[in-house]
Amino acid sequence: MSQPATTSPLQLGRQGFGAMRLRDTKSGDPDRDPFRVVNTALDEGVAMIDTAELYGNEELVGRTIAARRDEVVLASKFGVVRTDGRPDGPPDGFEVRADAGQVRRSCEASLRRLRTDRIDLYYLHHRSETVPIEETVGAMADLVRQGKVGAIGLSNVTAEDLRRAHAVHPVAALQEHWSLAERTVERDLVPAAAELGVALVAHSPTSHGVLHGAAGDAAPADERQVVHREIAAAHGVSAGQLAIAWVHSRGPLHGLEVVPLPGTTRASHVRANVAAREIVLGAEELRRLTAAWSPTA
Ligand SMILES: NC(=O)c1ccc[n+]([C@@H]2O[C@H](COP(=O)([O-])OP(=O)(O)OC[C@H]3O[C@@H](n4cnc5c(N)ncnc54)[C@H](OP(=O)(O)O)[C@@H]3O)[C@@H](O)[C@H]2O)c1
User: Fold this and answer.
1) Which residues contact 182 (CB under 8 A, 6 or more apart)?
2) From ligand 1's centre to the CA of 204, what distance in Å?
3) How far is the CA of 187 from the centre of ligand 1 (A)?
């Protein structure tokens, strides 16, 4: 009998919120208040809040969700550590640490920082060149059995990693970069995830903000901009919203659950990004947009 992917059903929701850039800015701008940003996401029906040990903001994320913990599918990641000894700011070096001891230590530290007794979705942040994925996932499976983790995820891995990991313990979700401008995932990972019934959490659906300016005013416009602008205008939406809508459209096409994971530090941008869920693109619009952004176009 196969093991369940989770100890309880994991409802990722249609769109997640990426908290990577969230900081205690004290900017005085209410639109950039991290409490307001996260609570706006929850108010707008987002369930999954995504952070990582590496982001240096688990304490902040824990504080922002404390009063609404039961509403949240809390996702975090371990395995990529800074080697510059600083807790925050632009990093000056990383290392992948994914041995069983690191899995246990990282989880305990994240639970403490997040002020919770359970991480609903816990990812290996990046594949290791030295530690077999079976060792890493074996230790993650122990955390599931202990109730400290709800479900297992992988990020920045290969299709072979996914298959090997899945043979040890069911993987609930992959987190990979997927956008109009970044399609590598479609080659091997998407088919493997579809075959195994693994959800694809598509991080950076606007390629770190680039696609928010995709229909920008710069002249002369290239073919991508022309098509992007035209379709965005037809729906009365922004370039970034159209880019996120395109990622939403990938699930039915590829036969798997796809959850776009945009990130922002502004409550107003949260609302705009969540609204992209409702944009319905026609088959011909999708064909034109996909072709315009094709890596070979
Ligand atoms: N697993 C991994 O290796 C990995 C790597 C990268 C990211 N991630 C995850 O994916 C999430 C998103 O990644 P990301 O932030 O790099 O990419 P993104 O969502 O594609 O882009 C974020 C950028 O777009 C801007 N933006 C967001 N919404 C906007 C809007 N409505 N209008 C105009 N600008 C807007 C943001 O600035 P403002 O703050 O001003 O809105 C920010 O500069 C992260 O938070 C993290 O959870 C995972």
Assistant:
1) 204, 207
2) 5
3) 23
- Residue minimizing CA distance to atom 13 of ligand 1: 204
Burial string for 123-144 (b: 16+ CB within 10 Å, else e) reads bbbbbbeebebeebbebbbbbb
Please choose from 208, 210, 237, 273 the residue to mutate so as to test ligand 1's pocket, defined by most ligand atoms within 8 A of CB. 208
* Cβ atoms 178, 250 nearer than 8 A: yes
CATH number 3.40.50.1260 given to 17-212+240-281: no
pLDDT one-digit tens code per residue, 123-170: 999 999 999 999 999 999 999 999 999 999 999 999 999 999 999 999
Q: Which atom of ligand 1 is nearest to the CA of 125?
A: 1
Question: What CA–CA distance (Å, rounded) separates 198 from 155?
Answer: 12
What are the residue ranges spanned by the domains of the chain? 17-212+240-281
> What is the per-residue pLDDT across 64-98, written as a single tens digit (0 to 9) for each?
999 999 999 999 999 999 888 877 777 788 999 99
More confident residue, 216 or 67: 67
Tokens describing residue 297: 């176009």
Distance CA 22, CA 267 (A): 11
**Which residues partner with 74 through β-bridges?**
49
Atom index in ligand 1 nearest the CA of residue 211 equals 20
Q: Hey, what are 291's tokens?
A: 């072709």
Positions annotated as catalytic residues are 55
What is the pTM assigned to this prediction?
Answer: 0.95
Atom 29, ligand 1: which residue's CA is nearest?
269
- Nearest residue (by CA) to ligand 1, atom 23, is 209
